[in-house]
What we know:
By secondary structure, the chain is of the alpha/beta class. The chain contains 21 helices and 8 strands.
Amino acid sequence: MGDLLRTPSGNHQNPGEILTQNVGYVARQPILDRRGAVFGYELHLHEPFVETPGNPARPGLHALLDAVGLFGVERFTGGSRAFIACTCEMLMEGAFEGLPPSGLVLQIPAPTEISPRLLRACRKLKEAGFQLALSESEAGERTDGFIQVFDYIKIDAAQLESAEWDQFLKRRLHGPATVVGDNVHSHETYRTARGAGLEYFKGFYFSNPELIPGGRIPANRIWHFEMLRELFKDPLDLKSLCPLVERDPSLLYRVLRFINSPLCAVRMPVTSIEMAIIMLGDATFRRIATLAIQCAASQHQSPELVNMAMTRSRFCASGASLAGLDADEQYLVGMISLLPPMLGVTMGLILPGLPLRDPVRDALAGIPVKERCLLSWIEALENDRVAECESLAQQYRLDRHELMRFYIAALEESRAVLSATEN
């Protein structure tokens, strides 16, 4: 029961195994709508950091594209749109020919020169059913005619307040292409982009906490902290924990729904917290209850927060064996890492009340101890800093093939767990 929340892929070969044949990286970043729901994911396909004769990018790139073509882009995005960042040369060379166009948005930077060949390639891809996105770096009319073939235009949100971009937006917001705000990493930037009329936002503003004033844990969050303190005790104290969970009807419902879902495969309905702990064991119950608390705490925020927390926790637990760390402890490191934006308080307010080992406390505080190496790796990948991923793998002697495989598996597992419990 200890690995209860791991779900089989149903296929002997998975995208992670194909990717790791050439040590490629896939970085995934969310694009959200105004309600905080996922509109799509931007995928950055990176070549391996290995010197080979000729062009080292091609084998790795083709392995990544093969994984998308063989398994479907939904394995990376959970069925949402996939914005694949590529180059103008890749479009002109026909690198995406043969891939199923459904759900794929091919994204290129604004070219310095708009050649007839590039324009023909874009139109050919559009006729094949692909959607296209253009990342604009300059406000102006230079690419206005070229823009007509694109479905999306991405604009750096930091530039939206200038007069040039204001005029650009006035021409574009009512045009054929949908404008997407890029690099929206703070709530202030999000409000600016939203005020400018944008509907979609790419960035991690939702995972950067907008702190509750006062520097104290608000009263309606106290129960969550008390339950977390009890959950991290080893062994669990049933007399203290059960009344706390049962005191919150919403949380009790979430915990029992997780436990009675098909993922747990228990043979009889579980009707009480005490029964659940006895049947599942402390470690498994601790994972389920922590996830339930996070779902409850973030119910008025973007669901992508819980998805990211679940992915981090699954990745950290799977990768623990590579780093010689405890899997259950690493699972909690991944989960706790996103508590600040869920609860609207700093990590400094959260950590003192949790009975964690000092190295784990340091890891969550951002100190580069060994217990943080897996969390640092996945944070770097989320932000498309693959050189940092390579550096961490070398520093802690982690197999980068396995790390990428665990990450792809974690994406699938988190989607399966959350879908099962939502249904």
